[in-house]
Amino acid sequence: DDSEGEAEEYLFKVVIIGDSAVGKSNLLSRYARNEFNLHSKATIGVEFQTQSMDIDGKEVKAQIWDTAGQERFRAVTSAYYRGAFGALLVYDISRRSTFDNVGRWLQELNSTYSCYTPLTFFSLCFFSYLDRLLAHSDTTVAKMLVGNKCDLDNIREVPVEEGKALAEAEGLFFMETSALDATNVKTAFEIVIKEIYSNVS
Ligand code: GDP
Ligand code: MG
Hints:
Blueprint: E1 9-18, H1 24-33, E2 47-55, E3 58-66, H2 78-81, E4 84-92, H3 96-100, H4 102-110, H5 121-135, E5 142-148, H6 160-170, E6 173-176, H7 185-200
Parallel strand pairs: 1-3, 1-4, 4-5, 5-6
Antiparallel strand pairs: 2-3
Bound molecules: guanosine-5'-diphosphate and magnesium ion.
Magnesium ion is lined by residues 24-25, 42-43, 66.
């Protein structure tokens, strides 16, 4: 119990990445507010939601970031990834191209320091050094590959086995979800948050 008057509290940043329209924003709204939007507009600006869960009697908060319609490669800035302890990398099981791009998203996630702005060589080095300091780059990032829209099984283009195999090869957790009918959404976020917690505690 917290007889000392101060319960232990954790706050972790988690990012959601993946191609446009794979369902990132709806996964977040399903998890955070139990809402689904059939005609969701592209997110403008960076948006995040904070969700709490209880692990071993401790309050663990996840600050979950949603990309701001910047799903083109190199458009997501390092500030988005900076300090993240967990990531959900989402593709759409009914659109092959979104699965084919998973490798590029992984690369971007793993090397936040690439040239995406016209910085001079000096400032690039400087900021990349700063990033490493701030991001505790030795910390493991808990990553999950998420095949969303599993309700669209009748028009599936990516077999479950392929998703599983890729995740295994890359050392990622794997889950198929549906933001539409809520399948596995809570579970997916909670596995990532629990993994982060076990990485740091
Ligand atoms: P984002 O661009 O990755 O944030 O994708 P959105 O969350 O905006 O979703 C894009 C479109 O896919 C919207 O029309 C959603 O209604 C739809 N969508 C999202 N998740 C699902 C899902 O699990 N199943 C189905 N059938 N449609 C979904
Ligand atoms: Mg979105």
